[in-house]
Amino acid sequence: MNKKMIPSMDEWLKEAKAHESAEKIGMYLTHNGIVRKSAKAKVRFGEENTKNVTGMQFSYDQEKVDAVIHFAGLKAVGESVAKPLMYYQNNLISTLNLIELMEKYGCNNLVFSSSATVYGDPISVPIYETFDLKVTNPYGRTKLMLEDILRDYAKVNEGKNIALLRYFNPIGAHPSGLIGEDPNGIPNNLVPYITQTAIGKRKALGVFGNDYDTIDGTGVRDYVHVCDLAYGHVLALDKLFSDCGLVVYNLGTGNGYSVLQVHAAMEKACGFPIPYEIKERRPGDIATCYASCEKAYKELGFEAKYDIDAMCRDAWNWQKNNPNGFKK
Ligand code: UD1
Predict the structure, then answer these.
(1) Model confidence over 103-115: pLDDT tens digits?
(2) Residue among 169, 215, 266 whose CB has most ligand 1 atoms within 8 A, to mutate
(3) How far apart are CA 309 and CA 262, in angstroms?
(4) Three-state SS for 148?
(5) pTM of the entire structure?
(6) 167 phi and psi, to 5 degrees?
(7) Residue 40's pLDDT band (cuts 50, 70, 90)
(8) What order do you get walking across the sheet with 288-289 strand by strand?
(9) Helical axes 259-270 vs 190-198, angle rounded to 10°
(10) From 28, 139, 231, 290, the catalytic residue
């Protein structure tokens, strides 16, 4: 694909907004070689703040909404410790507004982005959906509170279908290299920190602790490709349309990789060494966290297709194509 043909995300959104249906958006996307087959369903693109009920109401007035996938939320652990009210305000209020509106417009199906953070420091791995829920920071608490709110709501409202999807560590990017992760400021999460180091924006990756009880002393996580995760949502929607009530699924790969293993996989993807230095443990981190995805496999047919090399390849491809992220 010719790099000059690649629009920035801003341009893409502007263009997408100018079209009224996904058919047209699909043509636009295909024209640029981004995503094919996106034109099947008619989808209107609207942009509203979930804290602005009036705006959302207007969006809902336009057409019947069969299901909602609610991804909007703040997600940085450290920031949530520093600014708890911002997290409670943003994550809780916006979700309550959304549920209220869904209620008003008779929409019964919701996919909610939860997180492995609701398991806190698990007693063992792999982590099953039945494990105790306990959280260690305000971000995690907003996710657990929202899960509880949705459980209470579903209990007394027959006919509501809700999928709580507990994401493990989503990484990677769309294989086209056009949609990727562009965190504001210094990245909190591992993979954008590594790719920004590889592109020369950061001096060296700081590895937070090498004295954990793991394969090489560094933290182990269940990294899952964003495209696998996205597909998990499609499967969850199918499940909701079968009138399943409230369901909970882990979405990961079921495999754990250490920080140094991810770093090595990224060096392989880039083809050159990426500097790193060992630092103190990060407060609040746990040694090992990976999912059992048996339930999602049995009940949804979910199975992650991308391995760690593919995740790093796509993350690097995006960073390489977009050295300054979505900014020009
Ligand atoms: C955290 C949240 C998780 C959330 C995810 C994505 C908790 C306990 N975890 O996951 O719920 O879904 O963010 O927002 O609430 N690391 C380094 N150097 C870095 C950055 C990270 O060594 O510069 C290490 C960490 O110590 C950890 C691993 O890399 O072992 C992954 O860290 P990170 O990407 O921040 O994700 P989590 O903390 O696992």
Answers:
(1) 988 999 999 999 9
(2) 169
(3) 9
(4) helix
(5) 0.88
(6) -75, 140
(7) very low
(8) 257-258, 220-221, 288-289
(9) 40
(10) 139
